[in-house]
């Protein structure tokens, strides 16, 4: 049986390798608009064709494999292999360009597929074809490889794999229709954002890439100064809207379009977002004023709203010229919001707001039960998409364990950064940005950064996008099978 699972893993993997090959070819679509960049075409054609051929050969090799659902964490193993191969194959165009070594290329592509947005690329001097390639990785990473494949094929590829990638709710009874509906939302929002950006003065190329980056909560910009470089309040507002849409649970989108507004607002994550917005934007605005960062209330509010949203949605765009000039208290709030992150079932990263709510409710119920009569049995509840669900102790314990593990990794990564001479706040800011897939930077993860710094960030971004446990389940699955010799 174990051998059948491994054969199935490689059978499925062949499909995704072909898909990754096609992804390498997509940037060629910009060449009719920038024909002077035709000399870079081979950078994408070579890995694209090789991947497609390799996928076809692998598919032929395992074509007689019995189709069944992957179980016992083999879905996690397949998912990790897909993402690693996508990153590795996508490093090839950057290395063929000649300006980046393997570590730098791997960093850039991990940042792209994980929708982080940290970058070692000088975007002001990078060809359009490579900038579009980065945006394509954000699009694919945002919705997920499995969801794209599912939308094109059917349920036969298994709900287990769909869940393993982080999708827990079906929008429609049929999995394929759910995937297509999510992609429809995603594509419509990108179109809306692109048209809005163009209307407010952005170039078409900038508008397309920025809309993708905002909705995927990726934050890759095509100009060095990010959103600040456009010096436009309307562009900031459009970006805020797209970032919030990107971090919002896909089920909420469906209910909003069906005009079920009660279900939309009677959702625990919506309430938490509003609460955090009111409290921390007030704190951030006050902090800017008392530290004389600006003496204008409305300017302080504008800066605070944008930075709050970009952190909580884990996008990584900035609307200030120099992050290092922000007051320490303001930066501390940004770190906290990055760690909290967006909704479940969204493109946002971080711990996720739902998990924070579960743990806070667990603490509340624990205190409440300690003062009640021991004979009193209470039932815990939580509101999701307008419905009242029972919150079980097992979920509270599992969520608490996840958050504890997440924070341990965050502290460990921050420690590594401090060993290279960076102060604690900068180290925590940079690594929280990596593990929460945000993309804001104080300059630690730069083109000239140490390989240890870059690989620490790569591991953080990868674990953050995979939601940690998926990776460790895959490693443990392989370790057990090797030890028991059950892979042959």
Task: Give an account of the 3D structure.
The chain has helices at 2-25, 41-61, 74-97, 102-113, 128-143, 145-152, 159-164, 175-199, 204-215, 233-247, 250-257, 261-265, 268-290, 297-312, 328-340, 353-371, 393-418, 424-435, 451-465, 469-484, and strands spanning 381-384, 387-390. It is mainly alpha-helical and 488 residues long. It has a two-stranded antiparallel ribbon. The longest helix has 26 residues, at 393-418. It is globular, with a radius of gyration of 22 Å.
Structural class: mainly alpha
Shape summary: globular
Tell me the β content.
under 5%
**SS elements, strand count:** 2
Low-confidence stretches: none
Layout of strands and helices, then pairs:
Layout: H1 2-25, H2 41-61, H3 74-97, H4 102-113, H5 128-143, H6 145-152, H7 159-164, H8 175-199, H9 204-215, H10 233-247, H11 250-257, H12 261-265, H13 268-290, H14 297-312, H15 328-340, H16 353-371, E1 381-384, E2 387-390, H17 393-418, H18 424-435, H19 451-465, H20 469-484
